[in-house]
Specification:
With 500 residues, the protein is α+β, with helices and mostly antiparallel strands. The chain folds into two domains: 13-268, no CATH class; 275-496, Roll (C8orf32 fold). It contains eight helices and 27 strands.
């Protein structure tokens, strides 16, 4: 007997992940610390110890960041050692949750970033990354669920570290109004490299510690998302704002300690990520939905597939396939099939533990759709539905047997790929009857002659038509959702159902 879907349906892990991303100024956030060569690198000549708080629009503090930097010489090579410690403590959906992050890095003045360690933990979940960088190649290990996974990523020679580490204590480059700088950034949260533009766009007066100060205004642009920071002429970040309503403020040590106490996060947070549609009211279990999306940038290309297509009149149609599904249709091209079966850093489909569990679940079943259904049922029945603020790793979820949509989805993807079921990950939004809104969500898709959406978090063998896919891809694609937050508007033009 399948359990009824959990009431915690609104992808709290994704919400928590955004909080951490924003709190630590990751990738599309406020400023880009410069662990690179040449002008992109600005070394400290004294020890620094900086505290910042992360605030919601209602002025409640949900986390703090402490960054420390000191000059350090290694084997005659002048450089700097950097440390970041961060904590976010709050209540999400009536459950107290907390995230801890600790990281260290060393950068050479002449050779740029040389090594780093990065630990991300929440409750029973922890991920550790340690790596060195030489000749444009990052090599290291990721440790999760007691296993070590080797990493090797080309990163280029002029590398900076995204704000997961470093943030405010790593003083921003000495840019003057009118200056701009392009840098390659490495994000250890998604194990990916991308470009960012950092520019100084002018000066503004800002109030800090009861005084009016003249500060430089710094913008960071990555893709369609930009963030803004006010930086003193001593190169200290005084305040930073994201496009989504979160704010970072410099704190004293005593203010930071006061801000550490857990706080209830209510409508302020949920309201920031909820999307309340106009038009007809959706209903869980719908088999057909037609919507019109607004405030979608041209660069944001809404994916189409067997379930979701444009209607030619500016709308989007989502149609849940009839059940039972007949596995008929063309085979996937070899390159697409290989992509849909590959193991990744967080979807460890080739790991012996994952393979053994997949074999146990599917047995000798020859039919690909039945194998996918067996895995769906096992994940839905065996993974506790609970908010987890973690980086989702299939091995970790297999060990802890808990999580929200991200954990369910990465585990399903790993097990399905291990069982030779082509699988990809959809990231988008899904409807919640209880909350009367769309919330950000993740779910797997399997190829059985056509792509079929499944949702092991909500207990839908075939995902209903109130899912809207915005991005296709693994964890490194998560941040592509950021331009939608607080911007996306939905009009429901037509709804039919239920699908069951």
């Amino acid at each position: 007997m399948l359990r009824p879907p959990s009431r915690k349906l609104i992808a709290t892990a994704i919400i928590a992940f955004w909080l951490i991303m924003m709190a630590l100024l990751v990738r599309r956030e406020v400023l880009m610390p410069r662990f690179g060569a040449g002008r992109a690198l600005a070394f400290v000549d004294r020890e620094t110890d900086v505290w910042m708080g992360l605030y919601l629009p209602d002025d409640s503090c949900v986390g703090i960041i402490n960054t420390q930097t000191r000059p350090e010489v290694r084997d005659g090579d002048y450089g700097q050692h950097m440390r970041v410690w961060a904590r976010i403590s709050m209540t999400l959906l009536s459950q107290k949750t907390s995230v801890m992050l600790n990281g260290h890095a060393w950068a050479s003045r002449d050779k740029g970033l040389k090594e780093f360690t990065f630990t991300f933990g929440s409750g029973n979940h922890e991920i550790n990354i340690a790596a060195t960088i030489n000749d444009g190649l990052l090599k290291g290990d990721l440790q999760t669920a007691g296993e070590s996974i080797p990493l090797e990523i080309p990163v280029g020679k002029d590398l900076v570290f995204s704000g997961n580490m470093g943030t405010a204590a790593l003083n921003v480059p000495g840019l003057k109004p009118g200056d701009e700088l392009y840098v390659d950034t490495f994000d250890p949260m998604t194990m990916s490299v991308s470009k960012a533009k950092l520019s100084c766009v002018g000066e503004e007066e800002i109030e800090y510690a009861g005084k009016r100060l003249t500060a430089k205004v710094m913008l960071t642009q990555m893709g369609p998302v930009s963030s803004k920071a006010w930086v003193s002429y001593d190169n200290e970040v005084l305040r930073a704002e994201t496009p989504f309503g979160f704010t970072l403020r410099k704190l004293t040590h005593s203010e930071a300690l006061e801000a550490l106490s857990p706080r209830e996060v209510g409508p302020g947070l949920l309201g920031m990520v909820a999307i309340h549609p106009t038009g007809k009211r959706p209903a869980r279990g719908a088999e057909f939905m037609r919507v019109r999306l607004a405030n979608v940038a041209e660069a944001q290309d809404i994916p189409e597939d067997d379930t979701q297509q444009r209607d030619g009149a500016g709308g989007l149609i989502i149609r849940a396939p009839a059940k039972p599904i007949a596995p008929e249709g063309p085979s996937l091209p070899n390159d697409e099939r290989e992509e849909a079966l590959k193991a990744t850093v967080f979807v460890q489909a080739r790991h012996p533990t994952v393979r053994a569990m997949a074999d146990q679940i599917v047995g000798d079943e020859p039919d690909v759709w039945r194998r996918a259904r067996h895995i769906y049922r096992w994940v839905y029945e065996n993974i506790e539905k609970t908010p987890v603020m973690s980086l989702p790793s299939a091995l970790d979820v297999l060990r802890t047997r808990e999580g929200d949509c991200n954990e369910h989805t990465v585990l399903f993807a790993a097990l399905a790929r291990a069982a030779h079921v082509p699988t990809r990950i959809a990231i988008g939004i899904a409807w919640s009857d209880r909350l009367n809104a769309f919330y950000y969500h993740a779910w797997p898709e399997v190829y059985v002659g056509r792509w079929v959406w499944m949702d092991p978090t909500l207990g839908q063998r075939v995902a209903d038509a109130t899912h809207i896919k915005l991005v296709t891809g693994d964890i490194e694609k998560w941040t592509q959702l950021l331009p939608y937050i607080g911007q996306l508007e939905i009009e429901v033009l037509e709804i039919q159902g239920p699908a069951e």
